[in-house]
Q: What sequence folds into this?
């Protein structure tokens, strides 16, 4: 038998393979094969359990079959094939048996094949226990199994999804059922869990589900904006587990199985009509789980948590996190965005731009490149409602919108009582659309005169006409303007009283001699 342990001991001490070969009496090829197999299988150090027979089987499993006269099995290939979808041990054994018979060899029986693979997989998939620090991590996930509530009116069975949060150090857990697994309930579940624990851990470890992680990059996953904001509010860090790596959150994975056996299975036939009733049953069983004594260590989950872990949790904020949801939208040509079939205005400069929207229960905030550009009270009720801020409109749109009977009456009051009467008469004597067209002309005319001139002319118009119109008012204004200009001209033509008469003809011009 090859002394694998001696070879590896010398190799790990830095002894050359040539010297190892001389010391152990094995050929240099044998030494090289042992070292290369150890590197390939990740053996970097030895412990007391790694005896020479153990290493012989672990490093060279195929040799064991040859010695017994059976057709050898490439267990490494079996292990890799078994990870593929729809591949089973039964299928792999069938292929192995066919290959053995084709070569005239004896195959293992299916039972022996499975037992040998179990031994190989147990040695191959070594795990390293990680001792968590108190208050360091909270692992969260949805359970694979669901419960149900019954719709009282239709009798329909509605699925209830079970959220689980676990503190790995103490195994203290929180469980709650929800009607869906959307972002809002995901965040509410986190809030309830933190309040149940009475503090905030340093790190949250969720799965790569869409409600928490938008894109699962290996180095730096892209978090859902609402989830990231939640973490910032509670001063914690979110570190999603790697894709298809359940051991990254082994505690909650183990708790999921335990909860499924201790809570979900016993309640699978429980009939209730309200989610509150179902959660009440869950909380009662959760209390039993958290307070029951451990089998292999002293104390219970709750006792270990309160005595050793709770003091390491960060303090909760004084106010609960206000639930928010983030969405994106494109600003339409009418400078509005559509959110849940309601419409909200943004400054018209952002037409055709993509913006981020933060939604709370009563408020909507619009952001462009992390700068808030608009906010509105959230609309409820009938779909298709508009919330428009006039400051977001172009000037010509705003003037058109503000051109209404009420604003025209207010404008008339700023001119004087006569104009107020004139505007009221126009609105009363015409349909609204025609009246607004007339008033538009009137306001254009008013821009050429002072308020005093307009009021004086309107007063004259109302005295001389029983059917005052804008055209007559224009005539009065023009007549008053001409009178004013003529008056100025007459004043300029009056003789001056000054003694300086300028140049005059003398007596000599008229043929007289000055004597």
A:
């Amino acid at each position: 038998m090859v002394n694998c342990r001696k070879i590896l001991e010398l190799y790990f001490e830095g002894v050359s393979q040539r010297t190892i070969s001389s010391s152990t009496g094995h050929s240099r090829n044998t030494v090289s094969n042992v070292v290369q197999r150890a590197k390939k299988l990740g053996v970097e150090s030895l412990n007391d359990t790694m005896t020479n027979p153990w290493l012989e089987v672990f490093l060279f499993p195929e040799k064991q079959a040859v010695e017994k006269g059976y057709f050898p099995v490439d267990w490494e290939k079996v292990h890799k094939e078994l990870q593929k979808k729809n591949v089973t041990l039964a299928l792999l054994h069938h292929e192995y048996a066919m290959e053995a018979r084709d070569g005239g060899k004896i195959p293992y029986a299916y039972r022996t094949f499975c037992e040998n693979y179990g031994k190989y997989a147990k040695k191959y998939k070594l795990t390293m226990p990680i001792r968590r620090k108190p208050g360091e991590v909270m692992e969260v996930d949805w359970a694979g199994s669901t419960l149900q509530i019954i719709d009282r009116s239709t009798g329909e069975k509605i699925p209830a999804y079970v959220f689980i949060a676990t503190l790995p150090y103490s195994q203290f857990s929180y469980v709650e059922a929800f009607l869906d697994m959307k972002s809002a309930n995901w965040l509410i579940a986190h809030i309830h869990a933190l309040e149940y624990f009475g503090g905030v851990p340093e790190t949250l470890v969720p799965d790569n589900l869409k409600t928490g992680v938008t894109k699962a990059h290996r180095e730096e996953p892209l978090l859902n904006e609402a989830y990231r904001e939640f973490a910032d509010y509670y001063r914690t860090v979110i570190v999603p587990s790697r894709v298809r790596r359940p051991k990254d959150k082994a505690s909650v994975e183990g708790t999921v199985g335990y909860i499924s056996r201790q809570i979900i299975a016993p309640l699978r036939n429980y009939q209730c009509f309200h989610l509150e009733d179902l959660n009440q049953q869950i909380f009662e069983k959760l209390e039993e789980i958290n307070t029951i004594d451990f089998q292999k260590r002293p104390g219970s989950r709750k006792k270990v948590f309160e005595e050793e872990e709770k003091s390491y949790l960060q303090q909760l904020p004084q106010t609960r996190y206000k639930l928010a949801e983030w969405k994106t939208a494109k600003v339409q040509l009418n400078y509005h965005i559509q959110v849940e079939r309601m419409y909200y205005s943004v400054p018209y400069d952002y037409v055709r731009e993509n913006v981020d929207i933060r939604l709370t229960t009563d408020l909507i905030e619009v952001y462009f490149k992390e700068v808030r550009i608009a906010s509105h009270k959230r609309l409820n009720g009938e779909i298709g409602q508009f919330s428009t801020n006039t400051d977001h409109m172009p000037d010509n749109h705003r003037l058109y919108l503000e051109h209404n009977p009420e604003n025209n009456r207010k404008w008339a009051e700023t001119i004087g009582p006569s104009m107020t009467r004139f505007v009221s008469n126009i609105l009363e004597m015409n349909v609204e659309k025609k009246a607004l067209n007339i008033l538009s002309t009137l306001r254009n005319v008013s821009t050429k005169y002072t308020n005093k001139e307009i009021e004086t002319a309107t007063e004259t118009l109302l005295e001389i006409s029983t059917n005052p119109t804008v055209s007559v008012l224009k005539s009065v204004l023009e007549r008053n303007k001409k009178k004013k200009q003529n008056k100025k001209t007459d004043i300029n033509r009056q003789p001056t009283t000054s003694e300086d008469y300028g140049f005059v003809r003398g007596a000599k011009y008229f043929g007289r001699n000055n004597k």
Summary: The two ends are 166 Å apart (CA to CA). The longest strand covers residues 137-150. The first helix runs from residue 4 to 12. The chain has four domains: 4-124, 137-312, 325-394, 403-493.
